[in-house]
């Protein structure tokens, strides 16, 4: 069974991003970039499925600038078999990514597509759902457990009230939540071996997809600074303040 | 995880995605396998063997050793080693690096000079973390003056009989194999050979030493009392000790210099975080000009040493290893660390004197960096000679 995994190159989670002075976005010119942590969980899950003998081949896909190749190499070092980079300088929004993934899925015919539930840069949480809709496949989002059988997959989802398990017919789309697994640290020999694994490059035009952004960012601003709190002397004063000042009671 | 190093590497010509990926792996190894336990190991006075095995699985122990013996060297360059040292520094423990990595100098002479049989018997067990290996050169009667060492090995039939002692030996209490420098011939360097001695050899004993720092690394004095060593355990030919150990020097010194940069960055980041948090006289420490001047000066010193580390590493990878430059770099980087660790503890104030603070341990452990791998004085003298200053 072929598994397709989508990975995004994002600002590393350790970086404290700064808003550009002109408010046009976040300054990413001089910061460390890494694989989106939720996507790393997706790769790890696919590798575990392969190690368990349930998946036969893992194809990892990334989209964006040339440097996404580095992100793909990391996925190959983790255990993916081959990589596809859809190379473009154009800003990619979730719908464009979903359309590109749909075309790749049509070509590769995977039985399972695994994505991170969202990327830590724009926090959109849309691509997995959109690609499932475009393909007409079932979707199991926010997965904390994935139980793959020959023709179905059981996905345990983290929802407000607890856990929900859905059974999906394959092919299907799964998006990963934080607790699905803990990604491995990659071994040095595998990092070096990943350089020799196949990495194919295509363009959005090759796939016949128009990726022109449909949304325009008007302004990016830092969150307001939190002002200092106060101490109240008694419960009565607290209740009075909640009632009269905060007006939440 | 020195973030400053992430920033430093941006747009650097020296690092590619395999360096980044390896750095990330080591970062995770440290945060999962080391950081939660390091304080306990410091109390225990030694590292567990399971750590060696985990490090082996990750590729840490095998770095730079041939694939045939379980190592990994194809495609690796000196910058993979730099990534390793910088990321391991996050644990702020010199003892960790010493105890875990001493095989990198103990095994190298075996790989360079040893018989095929010896290599096949020793190397895979060491590189898989199953056996621990130590290097024993320094003696109670002298350290840097290696050419005059006194431990004697007399050839008697198919054995050597070894008498003498070694001291300040890292992993000396735990090691299974020892690469020992012994005198087999006459005076001077030509009379010194390397012997592989195993821990169970009758007449061999070891005494634990207590130290100022590096508490998680066991250090020992070794005693050889008529220890019989089979001639097959001779590493290379008689008189080849220097040839074997020369293979270590430059890499070891560059490694120490890199580690100093890593520890300095960790100390700086700790002091910086403190300065941004702590309030005195109505404002954050960092808002006091005198404190941020200190922080900028520390950064300046670190950058200078790190740039030099990269210069030497690039030269090594291009086949132009320069021993004088590496020797001077070692002095530069160790003095830089002494300065930065001191300033960091100064900014941390009372907290910098408390156990549990990284800068406290880094400060306390600056000494062995300035001594091991060649003292400052020997390094400067070597550089002066190699640069032709004697005319």
Automatic annotation (TrEMBL), chain A:
The keyword Amino-acid biosynthesis does not apply. One of its GO terms (molecular function) is electron transfer activity. One of its GO terms (biological process) is carboxylic acid catabolic process. CDD domains: ETF_beta. Residues 23-211 form the Electron transfer flavoprotein alpha/beta-subunit N-terminal domain. The keyword Electron transport applies. Its cofactor is AMP. Keywords: Electron transport, Transport. PROSITE patterns: ETF_BETA (PS01065). Belongs to the ETF beta-subunit/FixA family. Heterodimer of an alpha and a beta subunit. PANTHER family: ELECTRON TRANSFER FLAVOPROTEIN BETA-SUBUNIT, ELECTRON TRANSFER FLAVOPROTEIN SUBUNIT BETA. The electron transfer flavoprotein serves as a specific electron acceptor for other dehydrogenases. It transfers the electrons to the main respiratory chain via ETF-ubiquinone oxidoreductase (ETF dehydrogenase). This is Electron transfer flavoprotein subunit beta. It comes from Craterilacuibacter sinensis.
Automatic annotation (TrEMBL), chain B:
Residues 17-130 form the Acyl-CoA dehydrogenase/oxidase N-terminal domain. One of its GO terms (cellular component) is cytoplasm. Gene3D superfamilies: Acyl-CoA dehydrogenase/oxidase, N-terminal domain, Butyryl-CoA Dehydrogenase, subunit A, domain 2, Butyryl-CoA Dehydrogenase, subunit A, domain 3. GO terms for molecular function: acyl-CoA dehydrogenase activity; flavin adenine dinucleotide binding. Pfam families: Acyl-CoA_dh_1, Acyl-CoA_dh_M, Acyl-CoA_dh_N. InterPro entries: Acyl-CoA_dehydrogenase, Acyl-CoA_Oxase/DH_mid-dom, Acyl-CoA_Oxase/DH_mid-dom_sf, AcylCo_DH-like_C, AcylCo_DH/oxidase_C, AcylCoA_DH/ox_N, AcylCoA_DH/ox_N_sf, AcylCoA_DH/oxidase_NM_dom_sf. Residues 242-387 form the Acyl-CoA dehydrogenase/oxidase C-terminal domain. Its cofactor is FAD. Keywords: FAD, Flavoprotein, Oxidoreductase. Signal peptide: none annotated. Residues 134-227 form the Acyl-CoA oxidase/dehydrogenase middle domain. One of its GO terms (biological process) is fatty acid beta-oxidation using acyl-CoA dehydrogenase. PANTHER family: ACYL-COA DEHYDROGENASE FAMILY PROTEIN (AFU_ORTHOLOGUE AFUA_6G10880)-RELATED, MEDIUM-CHAIN SPECIFIC ACYL-COA DEHYDROGENASE, MITOCHONDRIAL-RELATED. Belongs to the acyl-CoA dehydrogenase family. This is Acyl-CoA dehydrogenase. It comes from Craterilacuibacter sinensis.
């Amino acid at each position: 069974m072929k598994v397709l995994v989508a990975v995004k190159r994002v600002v590393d989670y350790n970086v404290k991003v700064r808003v550009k002075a002109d408010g046009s976005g976040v300054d990413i010119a001089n910061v460390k970039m890494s694989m989106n942590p939720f996507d790393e969980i997706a790769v790890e899950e696919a590798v575990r499925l392969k190690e368990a003998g349930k998946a036969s081949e893992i194809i990892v896909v990334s989209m964006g600038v040339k440097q996404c190749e580095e992100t793909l190499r990391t996925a190959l070092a983790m255990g993916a078999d081959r990589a596809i980079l859809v190379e473009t300088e154009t800003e990619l929004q979730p719908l464009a990514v979903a359309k590109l993934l749909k075309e790749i899925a049509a070509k590769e015919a995977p039985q399972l597509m695994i994505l991170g539930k969202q990327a830590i840069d724009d926090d959109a949480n849309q691509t997995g759902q959109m690609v499932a809709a475009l393909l007409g496949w079932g979707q199991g989002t926010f997965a904390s457990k994935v139980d793959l059988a020959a023709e179905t997959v059981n996905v345990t989802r983290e929802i407000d009230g607890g856990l929900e398990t859905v059974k999906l017919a394959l092919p299907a789309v799964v998006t990963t939540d934080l607790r699905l697994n803990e990604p491995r640290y990659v071994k040095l020999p595998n990092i070096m071996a990943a350089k020799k694994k196949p990495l194919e490059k295509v363009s959005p035009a090759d796939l016949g997809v128009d990726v022109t952004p449909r949304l325009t960012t008007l302004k990016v601003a830092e969150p307001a600074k939190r002002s200092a709190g106060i101490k109240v002397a008694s419960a009565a004063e607290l209740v009075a303040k909640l009632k009269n000042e905060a007006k939440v009671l | 995880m020195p973030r400053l190093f992430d920033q430093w590497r941006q747009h650097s010509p020296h690092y590619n995605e395999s360096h980044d990926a390896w750095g990330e792996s080591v970062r995770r190894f440290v945060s999962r396998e080391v950081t939660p336990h390091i304080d306990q190991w410091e109390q225990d006075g030694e590292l567990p063997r399971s750590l060696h095995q985990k490090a082996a699985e990750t590729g840490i122990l095998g770095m730079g050793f041939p694939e045939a013996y379980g190592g990994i060297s194809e495609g690796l360059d000196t910058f993979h080693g730099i990534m390793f040292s910088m990321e391991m520094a996050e644990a702020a423990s010199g003892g960790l690096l010493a105890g875990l990595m001493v095989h990198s100098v103990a095994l190298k002479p075996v790989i360079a000079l040893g018989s095929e049989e010896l290599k096949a018997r020793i190397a895979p067990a060491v590189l898989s973390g199953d056996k621990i290996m130590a290097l024993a050169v320094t003696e109670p009667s002298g350290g840097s003056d290696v050419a005059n060492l006194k431990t004697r090995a007399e050839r008697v039939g198919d054995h050597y009989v070894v008498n003498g002692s070694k001291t300040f030996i890292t992993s000396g209490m735990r090691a299974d194999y020892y690469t020992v420098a012994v005198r087999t011939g006459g005076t001077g360097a030509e009379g010194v050979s390397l012997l592989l001695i195993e821990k169970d050899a009758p007449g061999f004993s070891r005494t634990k030493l207590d130290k100022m720092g590096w508490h998680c690394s066991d250090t020992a004095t070794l005693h050889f009392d008529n220890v019989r060593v089979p001639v097959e355990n001779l590493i290379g030919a008689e008189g080849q000790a220097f040839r074997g150990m020369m293979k270590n020097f430059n890499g070891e010194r560059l490694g120490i210099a890199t580690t100093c940069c890593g520890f300095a960055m960790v100390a700086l980041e700790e002091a910086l975080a403190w300065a941004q948090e702590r309030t005195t006289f109505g404002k954050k420490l960092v808002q006091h000009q005198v404190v941020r001047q200190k922080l900028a000066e520390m950064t300046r010193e670190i950058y200078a040493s790190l740039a030099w580390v990269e210069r030497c590493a690039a030269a090594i990878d291009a086949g132009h290893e320069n021993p004088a430059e590496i020797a001077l770099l070692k002095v530069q980087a160790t003095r830089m660390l002494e300065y930065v660790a001191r300033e960091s503890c100064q900014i941390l104030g009372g907290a910098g004197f408390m156990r549990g603070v990284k800068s406290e341990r880094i400060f306390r452990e600056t000494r062995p960096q300035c001594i091991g791998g060649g003292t400052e004085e020997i390094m400067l003298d070597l550089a002066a000679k190699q640069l032709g200053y004697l005319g």
